[in-house]
Design goal:
This protein has 280 residues and is an alpha+beta fold. It has seven helices and 18 strands. The two termini are 30 Å apart.
């Protein structure tokens, strides 16, 4: 009896979420070499976004809980990254930074590319400097190149225990994850602090938020967004209703029961739309 409602809800949501590109800020490195290096007698590990037991798991959970928008990236994908105007380009999407969680082993080619990105203007965050290269093939040769690269990084102590190394036009920073994100001025959706969660997409100059109330309290207030707002239109994926909602330059008015969700489109200028009908 409820399948039709569910399918309509998914259809309305995906009509927004399949458009445009992700509006995420962080490329989170998945340290697969560290996973391969773990010895054991268990079955082959299944590698997925959960990253159970991996050093990336703790970093990913922290980013998600605090409202930082990120995508995973692999060694092979890193080799294809480009830097434009101090932003990292991956698949046509712009990112503010690339983040390495605590990594012990990293392929030489990956480390070389990360430093190259910094030289061309990117900001690279590392919770710690990788220790060595993986594998045994030409190990001495690769290890020598790796150590030479590490020694070329000249770190200076900075505020909050952060170490910074100026590399070309960019920067490499190491230290505590919380402080790294603050020093790099990475966007954070503070709505996560109040039980809300969101997915953020961008399509030309229009930003789309899928917002879900995953907390236990009813939301009936102005909610901050990390996107500059000209005007905002709310869409209810449960019934298809929509309308313009009250907003400031960085907040929108939302009413969401626990478990309820909505789609909010942010436009850079004023739009002509009827007002959304809230219950009072």
């Amino acid at each position: 009896n409820d399948f039709g409602k569910l399918n309509n809800y998914i259809t309305r949501s995906q009509s927004f979420l399949q458009a445009g590109k992700p509006d995420n800020d962080i490329l989170l490195y998945y340290p697969i070499s560290d996973e391969y290096a773990v010895r054991g007698r268990s079955l082959l590990l299944h590698f997925d976004g959960a990253a159970k037991g991996s050093s990336v798991r703790e970093a990913a959970e922290y980013l998600f809980e605090k409202g930082y928008a990120f995508d995973y990236i692999s060694d092979r994908q890193i080799l294809n990254l480009k830097n434009e105007s101090n932003q990292i380009i991956a698949g046509g999407t712009k990112y503010q930074t690339i983040l390495l969680p605590p990594v012990k082993l990293i392929p030489l080619e990956t480390f070389e590319k990360v430093i190259e990105l910094a030289k061309s203007g990117a900001t690279v965050l590392m919770e710690q400097i990788p220790e060595d290269v993986p594998g045994l093939g030409k190990l001495d040769e690769r290890r020598a190149k790796f150590q030479k690269l590490k020694k070329s990084l000249k770190f200076d102590n900075s505020a909050a225990g952060i170490q910074k190394a100026k590399v070309g036009n960019g920067l490499i920073m190491t230290g505590n994850l919380t402080d790294l994100l603050a020093q790099a001025n990475i966007r954070r959706e503070t709505m996560f602090d109040n039980g809300l969660q969101c997915i953020r997409r961008i399509d030309s100059e229009t930003a789309t938020y899928f917002i879900a109330n995953r907390g236990t309290n009813t939301i009936d207030a102005m909610v901050p967004l990390e996107t500059k707002i000209g005007s905002a239109v709310l869409f209810n994926p449960m019934n298809g209703s929509f309308g313009k909602i009250n907003s400031t330059v960085n907040e929108v008015y939302l009413q969401l029961e626990p478990g309820e969700s909505c789609l909010v489109q942010i436009f850079p200028s004023k739009v002509n739309s009827p007002d959304y009908k809230y219950f009072k």
